[in-house]
Write a structure and sequence with these properties.
Helix content is 33%, strand content 30%. By secondary structure, the chain is an alpha+beta fold. Helix 2 crosses helix 3.
Length: 137
């Protein structure tokens, strides 16, 4: 039994460390007033009001952004894990969120959308998208 408990503990420990060794699914939400350009490690343009998804490698923990509304390029730290969200808010401020933040945001949106649950999957999903991180695609 002690050996089985040790194996279980080791398996749980490995499961916690696995996200650090894999890619991070990244969502960039641009609710700012102008285009945001992802410079490194990824290259993409995210127009105002649009969303972008991609993946960061295991060792890529910073995202470099540029926009005409900012005086210079920004570097934002992205927490390692399976999911991360970078939000450019309507006031052009930038915030980053990890997988736990994403779960909390979706949970809060789900509670707020409970009334639409009985209207079918599409209205409920639309409500969730509007309720998380200032609205989704």
């Amino acid at each position: 039994r002690p050996c089985m408990a040790a194996l279980l503990l080791l398996a749980l420990l490995c499961a916690q460390l696995l996200p650090l060794a894999s890619t991070t699914a990244l969502l960039v939400v641009n609710d700012g007033s102008d285009v945001v350009e992802l410079l490194t490690p990824l290259q993409a343009k995210v127009p105002a009001g649009e969303r972008w998804t991609g993946n960061l490698g295991a060792n890529e923990l910073a995202l470099h952004l540029e926009s005409p509304t900012w005086p210079s390029a920004l570097s934002v730290d992205v927490a390692p894990g399976r999911y991360a969200v970078v939000v450019i808010a309507p006031n052009n401020s930038v915030s980053t969120h990890d997988a736990n933040d994403l779960q909390v945001e979706l949970s809060n949106a789900a509670h707020a959308c409970e009334a639409t649950r009985g209207q079918g999957e599409s209205p409920w999903m639309d409500c969730l998208a509007r309720g998380a991180f200032w609205g989704g695609p």
